[in-house]
Each structure stands twice: as structure tokens, then as C-alpha cells.
Amino acid sequence: MSIVISDEILQASRLTPDEFRQEIALYLFESGRLTVGYAAQLANLSLHQFRQLLEQRQIPLYSYDVEDFELDVRNLRELGRL
User: Fold this and answer.
1) What is the pLDDT of residue 71?
2) pLDDT tens-digit profile of 40-74?
3) How would you label 42-61 residue by residue, b for 16+ Cβ within 10 Å and e otherwise?
4) Separation in Å, CA 51 to CA 14, 16, 22, 78, 82
5) SS3 at position 78
6) Rounded to an integer, what distance in angstroms lies between the CA atom of residue 54 and that of residue 72?
7) Model pLDDT, residue 68
8) What is the pLDDT of residue 45?
9) How far apart are CA 82 and CA 76, in angstroms?
10) DSSP designation for 8
11) Which Pfam families does the entry link to (predicted)?
12) Helix or strand or coil: residue 15?
């Protein structure tokens, strides 16, 4: 599938085509809609370069929230480790 972004929209964003792709990839990764690998592909970057971009933007590579923590605690209790 191809998506065409008009020159008008691209100019309004004040981004280069590569920067525009990177912004979309960052958003989709951060929102959990793309894996880091697919986001790197979309951004036309190597996995290493995309990880560096995430670091520059202070976007965590892994998401670990309260629900994940609570699940880990429950699992550890069931295993008798807590």
C-alpha cells in the first residue's frame, strides 16, 4: 500500500519527507501500534538508528506499566517466590 502526502501538507509540517516518515513511525511505535522493527522500517532507518532516535526523543524502548508490575507480582506469588 502506498500513501501519498501532498506537497502542501509536507510544506505545512516544515519537515522533510524523511523526517515526516520518522515522526509517523515514532508515533505509531509510542502508541503501541508498531513494533520497534516495523517502526524502523517505516522510518527508513536501521534498527540501531531508530533506537538512537527513540533515545534522543526520550521514548522508552519498552513499556512497563502498573498492570505489568501487578501481573508480575501475582505470578511470583503463585510460584511461591514472594
Assistant:
1) 92
2) 999 999 999 999 999 999 999 988 889 989 999 99
3) bbebeeeebeebbeeeeeee
4) 24, 20, 12, 35, 34
5) helix
6) 26
7) 87
8) 98
9) 6
10) H
11) UPF0175
12) coil
* Whether the predicted pLDDT of 1 surpasses 90: no
Which residue's C-alpha cell is 515522526? Answer: 23
26 vs 24: CA distance, rounded Å: 5
Could you tell me the three cell numbers for 52? 538512537
Residue 29 to residue 47: CA distance in whole angstroms: 13
CA-based radius of gyration for the chain: 18
Is the model's pLDDT at 24 over the cut of 90? yes
Q: Is 17 exposed, middle or buried (0-12, 13-18, 19+ CB in 10 A)?
A: exposed
Q: Transcribe 36-77 into DSSP letters.
A: HHHHHHHTT--HHHHHHHHHHTT--SS---HHHHHHHHHHHH
